[in-house]
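Sequence in, structure out.
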Amino acid sequence: MNTPNLLAAPRGVNHFNDVEEEPNPSMRLSFSHLIVVPLALALTSPTVADAQSIASPFTRIDRKQEFGPIFGHMSAANGRFGYGPSGGTLVCARYAIELAGPLSFESVLGFVNGTRDVVDPGRVEGDRVIGEADSSITTVDVRFRFSFPGRRTWHRFSPFLSAGGGMAFDHSASTELDDALLPEDVFDFGSSFFGTFGLGTRFFLSDGLALRAEAVFSLWKVDTPPGFADPNRGFIGVSQGEWLEGTSLIATLLYRW
């Protein structure tokens, strides 16, 4: 008689081959989706920072040409003996065109209307000025302008420096005071090289309209009348001419296209 084996494993159960079965592949794929999909959505979804934009203080300048009138005042040194033009009201016209990068080219036509002292070198020192005469100087020059922010504005401002040169011409009429002097004592400005160096800024009201303010340092030469170099009058070390500096404060209304 066969005794039943109580230790025998139930049918269908193998204690000696108890190998863990792998999960269903469909379950594994679902578990991966639970991690990958939310992570991808988190990386690709727009955030609050992406939705915000920071406005730039810089604005590009597209129009290249400008023209406008200039108004201001010029103060000029009048030389050792004081007969040179002392400056005056400054009225000009300016045309400019933007070149490559921060460079621009300018041409300026100006008129300086003021006065000068009429000096008689035959009189004693301290009593040589016998009156004033009108002075009218025309200047024509070209300049190169360098804009610090380039072809852009910073909060609508475009600071710059400029430098150039040209000619200055005197078109003043002769006066009765000049006629009272000896011919060799009469001052005549004639014509002279005119150099400039400026520092200023433009403020853009719109694309087609801008204001410009600047200080311009200038240089021109005046010839010494022969009577002021006469050693018999006690003049020593008198040069044939003097380079005199000037300072102008000017404002311009610019029309741009």
